[in-house]
Design brief:
Structural class: alpha+beta
CATH topology of the largest domain: Alpha-Beta Plaits
Number of helices: 5
CATH architecture of the largest domain: 2-Layer Sandwich
Largest sheet: 4 strands, antiparallel
CATH superfamily of the largest domain: YebC, transcriptional regulation domain
Shape: globular
Helix content: 25-40%
Order of helices and strands: EEHEEHEEHEEHEEH
Strand order of the largest sheet: 3-1-2-9
Number of domains: 2
Protein backbone atom coordinates (compact mmCIF):
# COMPACT_ATOMS: atom_id res chain seq x y z
CA UNK A 1 0.00 0.00 0.00
CA UNK A 2 1.20 3.50 -0.79
CA UNK A 3 0.15 6.92 0.33
CA UNK A 4 1.05 10.31 1.69
CA UNK A 5 1.30 11.43 5.28
CA UNK A 6 1.23 14.94 6.73
CA UNK A 7 3.58 17.37 5.01
CA UNK A 8 3.55 15.30 1.80
CA UNK A 9 5.69 12.53 3.29
CA UNK A 10 5.68 9.39 1.12
CA UNK A 11 4.63 6.26 3.05
CA UNK A 12 5.08 2.69 1.81
CA UNK A 13 3.31 -0.13 3.70
CA UNK A 14 4.11 -3.84 3.31
CA UNK A 15 1.25 -6.05 4.45
CA UNK A 16 0.42 -9.75 4.39
CA UNK A 17 -3.26 -10.58 4.54
CA UNK A 18 -5.86 -13.22 3.86
CA UNK A 19 -8.46 -10.51 3.15
CA UNK A 20 -7.28 -7.67 0.91
CA UNK A 21 -10.54 -5.73 1.19
CA UNK A 22 -10.43 -5.68 5.00
CA UNK A 23 -6.76 -4.67 5.07
CA UNK A 24 -7.20 -1.96 2.43
CA UNK A 25 -10.16 -0.51 4.36
CA UNK A 26 -8.23 -0.59 7.63
CA UNK A 27 -5.13 1.05 6.13
CA UNK A 28 -7.26 3.68 4.35
CA UNK A 29 -9.00 4.46 7.64
CA UNK A 30 -5.66 4.85 9.45
CA UNK A 31 -4.36 7.23 6.78
CA UNK A 32 -7.57 9.30 6.92
CA UNK A 33 -7.57 9.53 10.74
CA UNK A 34 -3.97 10.81 10.76
CA UNK A 35 -4.04 13.54 8.07
CA UNK A 36 -2.86 11.23 5.32
CA UNK A 37 -4.17 9.84 2.05
CA UNK A 38 -3.97 6.29 0.75
CA UNK A 39 -2.78 6.54 -2.85
CA UNK A 40 -2.85 4.44 -5.98
CA UNK A 41 -0.33 1.69 -6.65
CA UNK A 42 2.92 3.26 -7.86
CA UNK A 43 2.29 6.74 -6.46
CA UNK A 44 5.28 6.62 -4.07
CA UNK A 45 7.10 3.32 -4.72
CA UNK A 46 9.43 5.01 -7.22
CA UNK A 47 10.79 7.13 -4.34
CA UNK A 48 12.17 4.04 -2.58
CA UNK A 49 14.75 1.38 -3.33
CA UNK A 50 14.65 -2.20 -2.00
CA UNK A 51 17.77 -2.97 0.05
CA UNK A 52 19.11 -5.58 2.43
CA UNK A 53 19.96 -4.33 5.91
CA UNK A 54 22.02 -6.07 8.57
CA UNK A 55 22.34 -4.48 12.04
CA UNK A 56 24.98 -5.11 14.70
CA UNK A 57 25.39 -3.58 18.13
CA UNK A 58 28.49 -1.43 18.49
CA UNK A 59 30.13 -3.86 20.94
CA UNK A 60 30.77 -6.60 18.33
CA UNK A 61 33.78 -4.84 16.78
CA UNK A 62 35.12 -1.44 15.84
CA UNK A 63 33.37 0.65 13.22
CA UNK A 64 36.35 0.21 10.89
CA UNK A 65 36.35 -3.60 11.24
CA UNK A 66 32.64 -3.94 10.50
CA UNK A 67 32.74 -1.52 7.57
CA UNK A 68 35.85 -3.09 6.03
CA UNK A 69 34.42 -6.62 6.21
CA UNK A 70 31.05 -5.43 4.87
CA UNK A 71 32.62 -3.74 1.86
CA UNK A 72 34.77 -6.80 1.11
CA UNK A 73 31.60 -8.93 1.12
CA UNK A 74 29.88 -6.58 -1.35
CA UNK A 75 27.86 -4.19 0.82
CA UNK A 76 27.00 -0.87 -0.80
CA UNK A 77 26.95 1.28 2.34
CA UNK A 78 27.49 1.23 6.08
CA UNK A 79 26.04 3.61 8.65
CA UNK A 80 26.62 4.12 12.35
CA UNK A 81 24.12 5.48 14.86
CA UNK A 82 23.47 5.29 18.59
CA UNK A 83 22.11 1.73 18.22
CA UNK A 84 25.19 0.40 16.42
CA UNK A 85 26.07 -0.39 12.82
CA UNK A 86 23.78 -0.85 9.84
CA UNK A 87 25.16 -2.53 6.74
CA UNK A 88 23.23 -1.92 3.52
CA UNK A 89 23.49 -4.15 0.45
CA UNK A 90 21.71 -5.06 -2.76
CA UNK A 91 18.87 -7.55 -2.11
CA UNK A 92 20.56 -10.04 -4.46
CA UNK A 93 23.68 -9.99 -2.25
CA UNK A 94 21.79 -10.10 1.06
CA UNK A 95 22.39 -13.79 1.89
CA UNK A 96 26.10 -13.63 1.04
CA UNK A 97 26.73 -10.40 2.98
CA UNK A 98 24.59 -11.45 5.95
CA UNK A 99 26.18 -14.89 6.28
CA UNK A 100 29.70 -13.49 5.90
CA UNK A 101 29.15 -10.84 8.56
CA UNK A 102 27.59 -13.41 10.90
CA UNK A 103 30.70 -15.60 10.58
CA UNK A 104 32.90 -12.63 11.45
CA UNK A 105 30.84 -10.87 14.14
CA UNK A 106 28.18 -13.30 15.35
CA UNK A 107 24.42 -13.13 15.02
CA UNK A 108 23.19 -9.68 13.91
CA UNK A 109 20.71 -7.78 16.08
CA UNK A 110 18.48 -7.48 13.02
CA UNK A 111 18.51 -8.40 9.35
CA UNK A 112 16.06 -8.28 6.49
CA UNK A 113 14.90 -6.55 3.35
CA UNK A 114 13.53 -3.04 3.63
CA UNK A 115 12.66 0.03 1.59
CA UNK A 116 15.17 2.89 1.62
CA UNK A 117 14.02 6.38 0.64
CA UNK A 118 15.91 7.82 -2.33
CA UNK A 119 15.27 11.38 -1.16
CA UNK A 120 14.02 12.67 2.17
CA UNK A 121 11.82 15.57 3.22
CA UNK A 122 12.53 17.53 6.41
CA UNK A 123 9.47 17.88 8.62
CA UNK A 124 8.66 20.36 11.37
CA UNK A 125 7.28 19.78 14.86
CA UNK A 126 3.55 19.74 14.13
CA UNK A 127 3.86 17.51 11.06
CA UNK A 128 6.33 15.23 12.85
CA UNK A 129 3.97 14.59 15.75
CA UNK A 130 1.06 13.70 13.45
CA UNK A 131 3.33 11.63 11.18
CA UNK A 132 4.69 9.57 14.09
CA UNK A 133 1.11 8.82 15.19
CA UNK A 134 0.28 7.71 11.63
CA UNK A 135 3.36 5.47 11.41
CA UNK A 136 2.66 3.98 14.85
CA UNK A 137 -1.00 3.29 13.96
CA UNK A 138 0.05 1.61 10.70
CA UNK A 139 2.68 -0.45 12.51
CA UNK A 140 0.07 -1.56 15.07
CA UNK A 141 -2.17 -2.94 12.30
CA UNK A 142 -2.05 -6.76 12.50
CA UNK A 143 -1.53 -7.30 8.76
CA UNK A 144 1.25 -4.73 8.40
CA UNK A 145 4.76 -6.17 8.21
CA UNK A 146 6.78 -3.01 7.58
CA UNK A 147 6.25 0.73 7.19
CA UNK A 148 8.73 3.00 5.37
CA UNK A 149 8.60 6.78 4.97
CA UNK A 150 10.85 9.40 3.36
CA UNK A 151 11.08 11.93 6.19
CA UNK A 152 13.99 13.49 8.01
CA UNK A 153 13.64 15.11 11.40
CA UNK A 154 16.15 17.28 13.27
CA UNK A 155 17.83 15.56 16.24
CA UNK A 156 16.59 18.22 18.69
CA UNK A 157 13.00 17.74 17.54
CA UNK A 158 13.31 13.96 17.73
CA UNK A 159 14.57 14.20 21.32
CA UNK A 160 11.75 16.56 22.26
CA UNK A 161 9.09 14.29 20.74
CA UNK A 162 10.49 11.09 22.26
CA UNK A 163 11.18 12.62 25.69
Amino acid sequence: YEGYGPGGIAVLVDAVTDNRNRTAAEIRSIFNKHSGNLGETGCVAFMFKRVGTIRFSSDVATEEEVFEEALILGASDCEVDIDGYEVICDPNDFALVSEGLEKSFGKPSGAGLSWQAQTTVEIDGDSAEVLFKLLEALDDCDDVQQVSANFEVADELMQRLSG
